[in-house]
Design brief:
With about 230 residues, the protein is an all-beta fold. The chain is built from no helices and 17 strands.
Length: about 230
């Protein structure tokens, strides 16, 4: 069996033997830092290609952020698909996730209790890796949030359910940052309300998100986008 990345390389044999089962589940990862494409078949890695090794003249298309997926009409093998769901959280520099608020939402699972002193710490970056803001959720006696380089201090998070198991949904438009907890809106903050001297970082378009090492609350995450189905 062979695979090919169009505009990157000619077709290439899979590195490892494909499992013999007729029914196969293929998992395709686009890793960031280092930038690579990895393919698994029934849980076995069969290809791992570094984007830096592309040789085709149009290879720069792989520098673009992926927000949509299309199955070509010429695809005769795919029966159905699913986007990988909840992912474990890796923290610190080097673990950047593509996150484009115009087309996706970021969801995080936590089971931290109030007054545990745990926190969610998210740093955002634009496509050039310039800082685009930092969001902190504090699990203190009351839930609080902070937009660093925007607000002077913290603000209360209202209407948070008492259950420890929570799913937080983060969205950002041009002037609004909203946070939902278990489908209930608990934060709706106007970026125009920022008073900090460095507030201009929130004017940058977010392209990536990183979980800080100081994050002790985030258990898993998923980034949900808009997908195209083409028959």
């Amino acid at each position: 069996m062979k695979y090919q990345l169009l505009h990157c390389m000619a077709d290439k044999a899979l590195l490892y033997s494909v499992p013999e089962e007729k029914e196969k589940v293929w998992t395709i990862y686009r890793a960031v830092g280092p930038d690579a494409v990895r393919i698994e078949c029934n849980g076995v890695e069969v290809a791992n290609f570094m984007i830096s090794e592309c040789t085709e003249s149009n290879k720069d298309v792989y520098d673009r952020l992926i927000t949509k997926l299309v199955f070509y009409n010429s695809d005769t093998a795919s029966d159905f698909y699913r986007k990988k769901d909840w992912m474990p959280v890796s923290r610190g520099a080097g673990y950047f996730r593509d996150f484009i608020p115009q087309t996706t939402t970021l969801q995080i699972k936590t089971n931290s209790a109030l007054n545990s002193a745990d926190k969610v710490v998210l740093r955002f970056f634009d496509a050039a890796m310039h800082p685009a803001g930092t969001l902190v959720l504090y699990f203190n006696a009351r839930m609080e949030f902070e937009l660093q380089s925007c607000m002077e201090g913290r603000q209360a998070v209202s209407n948070v359910l008492k259950a420890d198991d929570k799913i937080w949904t983060f969205q950002k438009s041009q002037n609004d940052i909203t946070i939902d907890c278990n489908d209930v809106t608990v934060v709706d903050y106007k970026v125009s309300s920022c008073t900090h001297n460095d507030r201009s970082v929130y004017n940058r378009e977010i392209a990536k998100v990183m979980f800080e090492e100081a994050d002790t609350a985030s258990d898993s995450y998923r980034i949900r986008g808009f997908w195209c189905y083409c028959n």
